[in-house]
Amino acid sequence: MKIKSELTLYFKDTCPFCRKVLDYLDDLKKTVPMKNIKGNPEYSDELEKISGKRQVPCLVIDNDPLLESDAIVLWLEEHKILLEDTPAQERL
Questions:
Q1: 16-27, pLDDT tens digit by residue?
Q2: Phi first, then psi: what are they for 27, rounded to 5°?
Q3: What contacts 24+ positions apart, CB below 8 Å, involve 1-7?
């Protein structure tokens, strides 16, 4: 049984739906590896290769994309134990 999933959140800092996911992580004081696709064509291309589109937010869970902010927040809620704590200095 796999204990820890490999996670990456693709987002754009100007996207309100991404903000919802980021705010939820802040509220939990948790973090996941993130890639901001704004102004980064390499990350945009990566996202399109994984999910078939450039839609954000997209949480990639063990190479499987999960789209839509509500679905991502629900997954994060159900899998809090897998998330890393946000270092205190990043919460300031």
A1: 999 999 999 999
A2: -60, -40
A3: 2/62, 4/82, 5/61, 5/62, 5/79, 5/82, 6/60, 6/61, 6/62, 6/63, 7/32, 7/33, 7/59, 7/60, 7/61, 7/82, 7/83
Which pTM value belongs to this model? 0.88
Burial class (CB in 10 A: 0-12, 13-18, 19+), 1: exposed
Would you say domain 7-84 falls under CATH 3.40.50.1820?
no
How do the domains of the chain map onto residue ranges?
A: 7-84
Structure tokens at 90: 């990043």
SS3 39: coil
Contact between 16 and 49 under an 8 Å Cβ cutoff? The reply is no
Residues 77 and 55: their CA atoms lie apart, in Å, by: 21
